[in-house]
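Thought: the user asked what Phenylalanine--tRNA ligase alpha subunit looks like in 3D. I have the sequence; next I should run the structure tool and report back without guessing.
Action: structure_tool
Action Input:
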Amino acid sequence: MEEILEQIATLKNEISAATATNKDEIEAFRIKYLGTKGIVKALMGEMKNVPNEQKRAFGQTMNEFKLLVEDKYNSLKESEEDLENAAGDEDLFLPGQQIPVGTRHPISLVRNRIISIFRKLGFAVAEGPEIEDDWHNFTAMNLPEDHPARDMQDTFYIHQNPSWLLRTHTSSTQARTMEKQKPPIRIICPGRVYRNETISARAHCFFHQVEGLYVAENVSFADLKQTLYFFVKEMFGPDVKIRFRPSYFPFTEPSAEMDISCLICGGEGCNVCKHTGWVEILGSGMVHPNVLENFGIDSKKYTGFAFGMGMERICQLKYRVNDLRLYSQNDLRFLKEFSGAL
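Observation:
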């Protein structure tokens, strides 16, 4: 066996140094080493003369040697093909065809930015199903069947008795999180939601939301305000003005809507802000005790705040988009405008 190994070592040096300038020389190399009467097959035949305890090691050596020969043969073929192409009529110095590079959708850009900002504050991302049952979408969030607030959301029902629907908000993800996890809870819930509305420049039958929830001991409205102040300054810049207005939501008490100074007109008044200089961007408030109790969370020990915003509205203000329909029309002229926002 030692003689065979020495022979293989010599052959490896010959193979590494082998060259070929035409197809005939390449074919001669193949016949010499890989042909039916070639060196590789002849050496493989020596396996019968190798002691049993050495057969495994010899087999591995031969496999490595065969792979070396095959790699060299393929390398010679590729080199010969490259020479043929270089000798052809093609001008290798012509500029290549441009490969188009895609861009992220503006909604994806805003979603990623929102997630990035809230992660700085320790918020995790939670996701849930877009087809929901009535309990998680409405009842658990303090909207029983006869609650008038249900009329505020025109719902796509898939099945009734029991009720299944396309979720109208990502509050259902908050519900599913509180169902499985006990405080402290600090999450944001991005996702697509559906409402039966007439499609126009300002409304659509589906849109995207980001809702947030923070439940722990001693959470206050001041914590809510400072969280949202931080978000707005990070998203829109340090010069934007902010105000809170009292509002009503069945799942929070007290509740407030937050406005920012209109970025389109600089607060002077335009069609976007309805000539008020302010644009409402989100609703918020302290989590209603009933919501906490629905999930077995002691409302006397824990408090929390929640907020929700539409991504399309944030995107409209950040990128000056004046028509909600543009987000879903797949118009490449519109989408290419965001190539520099990657």
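Thought: the tool returned a structure. Summarizing for the user.
Final Answer: Structure for Phenylalanine--tRNA ligase alpha subunit predicted. The beta strands are 124-125, 131-133, 157-159, 164-166, 185-194, 206-216, 242-249, 252-261, 278-287, 303-310. The chain has a mean pLDDT of 87.
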